[in-house]
Amino acid sequence: MFDYISIGVFIDGGYYAKINRALKAQDRSIIRVRSLFEYISSELAMQEGVNISDCQITEAHYFRGRFRVKEAYDKHLLYNERKFEDSLIENDVVFHYKHLREVERDGTTEVLEKGVDVWFALEAYELATFRHFDYVVLITGDADHQMLVRKLKALKIKTILLTWNLTDVDNTSNMLRDEAGQHWELSLIIENNPQLKKMLLYKLREPALTPLGDNF
Fold first, then answer.
1. What value does the mean pLDDT of the chain take?
2. How far is CA 165 from CA 76, 172, 173, 175, in A?
3. Distance CA 29, CA 166 (A)
């Protein structure tokens, strides 16, 4: 048992946005960042048999591609991006962005997000090496992060994969799930715990037809 437990949280922004899009469509809700962090800390404190004050998220990082300011303005995304960033800042989350690119292919516009997954993996591994986290929590479902989990385990850092699968399209990679030391699937965890669901979600006040963007 550790005297003090340090937790590093790394959020795949594209995956997180998919969760919130599905929650908005199903329940007109989005994830409450602070409540999610409190849940992580309390669960690990209980697992390790320590007081929650001795089990803290010492760093949290968010990785995402986003449009340049003019493109975001033209697409009416600036307000939602800023609003979401406010919630990250309020919870001491460090955000890491790379610019998105749009290309025309076969008459359709395709949005390209290059290098974010690699940056996510490199930053998580480097910080875990220097900060000596006791636990690393990865919020992602991408198979590309399987080797990151394996490398973190080689450092003897306990790794938790936290997912929230709401659609068949966003199912967690089996390879990633099998590699992780623990897998917390929130859609299953809250199934018989309505109080936890209520705690984790923020009910949107806007009408359902109001465009809310994808960056919550």
1. 86
2. 28, 7, 11, 16
3. 13
| pLDDT at residue 205 greater than cutoff 60 | yes
Beta-carbon count within 10 A of 28 CB: 15
Percent composition of the chain: helix, strand, coil (DSSP 3-state, to 5): 45, 25, 25
Helix orientation angle between 146-154 and 116-131, rounded to the nearest 10 degrees:
10
Q: Find where tokens 């008459």 sit.
A: 107
Q: What is the pTM of this model?
A: 0.88
Enumerate domains of the chain plus CATH numbers: 5-28+42-129+145-159+172-203 (3.40.50)
| Cα dihedral sign, 123-121-8-163 | positive
How far, in Å, CA of 51 to CA of 156, rounded? 23
pLDDT at 216 over 50: no
The distance of Cα 6 from the centroid of its chain, to the nearest Å, equals 18
Tokens standing for residue 66: 């986003």
Look up residue 45 and give its amino acid.
A
| Residue 152 and residue 159 in contact, taking contact as beta carbons nearer than 8 Å | yes
pLDDT in tens, 30-74: 999 999 999 999 999 999 999 999 999 999 999 998 888 888 888
pLDDT at 211 over 60: no
Among candidate residues 124, 121, 146, 145, the one with its CA nearest the CA of residue 136: 124
Name the packing angle between helices 78-90 and 33-48 (round to 10°).
30
